[in-house]
Specification:
Blueprint: H1 2-8, E1 13-14, E2 19-20, E3 23-29, H2 35-50, E4 55-60, H3 62-72, H4 75-83, E5 89-94, E6 98-101, E7 118-127, E8 136-144, H5 148-163, H6 166-172, E9 176-178, E10 187-189, H7 191-210, E11 214-215, E12 221-223, H8 224-230, H9 232-235, E13 244-246, E14 249-253, H10 258-265, E15 277-286, E16 302-312, H11 317-333, E17 340-345, H12 355-372, E18 377-379, E19 389-395, E20 401-410, H13 413-416, E21 421-422, E22 428-429, E23 432-441, H14 442-453, E24 466-470, H15 476-488, E25 493-495, H16 501-510, E26 515-519, H17 521-526, E27 528-533, E28 537-543, H18 544-556
Parallel strand pairs: 11-15, 17-18, 24-25, 24-26
Antiparallel strand pairs: 1-3, 2-3, 3-8, 4-5, 5-6, 7-8, 9-10, 12-14, 13-14, 15-16, 16-23, 17-19, 19-20, 20-23, 21-22, 26-27, 27-28
Helix pairs in contact: 1-2, 3-4, 6-14, 11-12
């Protein structure tokens, strides 16, 4: 592709062109490209493929590589050359017409590539080295497969992902918005989205109480000194908002909840008999993100974490981790997530804490995973500097992986805040602290749910569980009576009228309402409802009491009617 670009646009300068998931991109310093330009580039690529030019690997010295790059006047390649530490330097030639720095390997010749399995997808702006102070480049995204059928399957996958895009569905279903008048990355939950959030939060709280957690609510701001003690100002400042002056004291919007939970722990002296202590909070945090990196609900500036911290003894780590894994499975299982990708990350080169406690904690995490029977990969040296961790990704309906849950042992904050307990010998000791989140953030998880379900939420989670549709306004009074009865039982229903019945049904289906209850003169006379399922079609007529009973059973079992 880069060869094709430079043939068509001789003044363009090449930079980097790595492979990424499902494709590749290449950045060029050149005038802005259009979709029409992409078509020209693809045609030129096809010509290069048809010519069946050989790809030849050449090893050269650093000095020779520099000489050749300077001859071509490619300043970005010079910078890339400086970053390459290995020698010799490898170059790949396409015929005798074009070459590039590359580690390889490549196919033998351009003719080995199926031109019908290659597509240029889009063009976007990107700063050199990702730094907004550098030159803005033109980034061309493309994808390449072994054959045309694989490309068609990928295109279908992309179309399905586009259909499920939470930003579009959020607008179509009136779930949430980002109001630019208020600022980018700040989420407004609309009534329908808010009721789903309420269900998520209520379920989350109930399950945590069952698992022995105490719930907390803590402030959104705190004195800046708190964040100095925690180390956030030293190590996390670029992700924090500017401090505010309150009566000559500096305050800070919280980027994390951990220090607050530690302060709650420190409010009194603890004995070894008190452990484990589990506290949980749906805590809203604020983190600075560049406007260009914001993305719907997936990348925002204010979000609510399902945060929890466990304070325990060393010999309790394994049982507590196992309890977190059980809790994670129960919560994620409600939404149909059954397949996980799990990584256990171990001690990095730079870390705090003794060898003994690192070994005990890592073994405890491994044993908890083994006891759970979950497969996992070990990321040697990939842990945080303050402790080993488990990261869990869920798999959605399209097979995409989403990072959600994390469990991290922390040897750093307990020392920074000097938290202690009194052991059986009346001596002060340091407890173990475990961070954990299951959903990650409510905003991001909601975005994942929208795309997982394609906005078609299951009955128990749907913002509107049923719409009552009168054939004419003559049945409206009965419909309102039924709606009032259903609402009194805790169901989310609404009456829609004023249109012809076929349109009322289409509107309900467009809004992805799981159930419709059609009411005509016969239903009023018999005190019944004719139930229609969005997925199963006509269910038939039933008395209101029967409908309520079946609805209660379906919601309790998180199933369809």
């Amino acid at each position: 592709m880069a060869m094709a670009v430079q043939k068509l646009f001789p003044n363009s300068k090449v930079t980097i062109g790595p492979w990424i998931d499902n494709g590749f991109y290449y950045d060029f310093d050149m005038e802005p490209l259009t979709d029409k330009d992409l078509k020209k580039i693809k045609k030129e690529m096809d010509r290069i493929i048809r010519r069946n030019l050989p790809l030849v690997r050449e090893e050269v010295s650093r000095e020779e590589a520099q000489k050749r790059i300077e001859a071509l006047n490619e300043p970005y390649k010079l910078e890339i050359l400086e970053s390459i530490k290995e020698e010799p330097i490898t170059i790949y030639h396409i015929g005798e017409e074009w070459w590039d720095l590359c580690a390889g390997p490549h196919v033998e010749s351009t003719g080995k590539i199926d031109r019908k399995a290659v597509e240029l997808e889009s063009v976007a702006g990107a700063y050199w080295r990702g730094d907004e102070k550098n030159q803005m480049l033109q980034r061309i995204y493309g994808t390449a497969w072994e054959n045309e059928d694989q490309l068609k399957a990928y295109i279908h996958f992309k179309e399905e992902a586009k259909r499920r895009d939470h930003r579009r569905l959020g607008q179509d279903l009136d779930l949430f918005s980002i109001q630019e008048d208020a600022g980018g990355g700040l989420v407004f939950w609309h009534p329908k989205g808010a009721i789903i959030r309420h269900i998520l939060e209520d379920s989350w709280k109930q399950i945590h109480l069952q698992y022995g957690y105490d719930l907390l609510y803590t402030p959104h701001v705190a004195k800046a000194d708190l964040w100095r003690i925690s180390g956030h100002i030293d190590f996390y400042k670029e992700n924090m908002y500017n401090q505010m002056d309150v009566e000559d004291e500096m305050y800070q919007l919280r980027p994390m909840n951990c220090p607050y939970h530690i302060l709650v722990y420190k409010r009194k002296l603890h004995s070894y008999r008190d452990f484990p202590i589990r506290v949980a909070e749906l805590g809203t945090v604020y983190r600075y993100e560049l406007s260009g990196s914001l993305h719907g609900l997936f990348r925002v500036r204010g979000f609510t974490q399902d945060d929890a911290h466990i304070f325990c003894l060393e010999d309790q780590i394994q049982d507590e981790i196992r309890g977190v894994l059980d809790l994670t499975e129960q919560i994620l299982g409600q939404f149909g997530f059954r397949y996980y990708e799990i990584n256990l990350s171990t001690r990095p080169e730079k870390s705090v804490g003794s060898d003994d406690i690192w070994e005990k904690a890592t073994v405890a995490l491994k044993n908890a995973l083994d006891d759970k029977g979950w497969e996992y990969k070990v990321d040697e040296g990939g842990g945080a500097f303050y402790g080993p961790k488990i990261d869990l990704k869920i798999e959605d309906a399209l097979g995409r992986k989403w990072q959600c849950s994390t469990v991290q042992v922390d040897f750093n904050l307990p020392a920074r805040f000097d938290i202690t307990y009194v052991d059986s010998n009346s001596e002060k000791k340091r407890p173990i602290m475990i961070h954990r989140a299951i959903l990650g953030s409510l905003e991001r998880f909601f975005g994942v749910l929208i795309e997982h379900y394609a906005g078609d939420f299951p009955l128990w989670l749907a913002p509107t569980q049923a719409r009552i549709l009168p054939v004419t306004d003559n049945e409206l009074q009965y419909c309102n009576e039924v709606a009032a009865e259903l609402k009194s039982r805790g169901f989310r229903v609404e009456v829609c009228h004023g249109e012809r019945l076929p349109k009322l049904i289409r509107n309900a289906e467009t809004q992805k309402v799981p159930l419709m209850a059609v009411v005509g003169p016969k239903e009023v006379q018999a005190r019944t409802l004719t139930i229609r399922s969005r997925h199963n079609g006509e269910i038939g007529a039933m008395h209101v009491d029967e409908f309520i009973t079946r609805l209660q059973l379906a919601v309790a079992n998180k199933s369809s009617l």
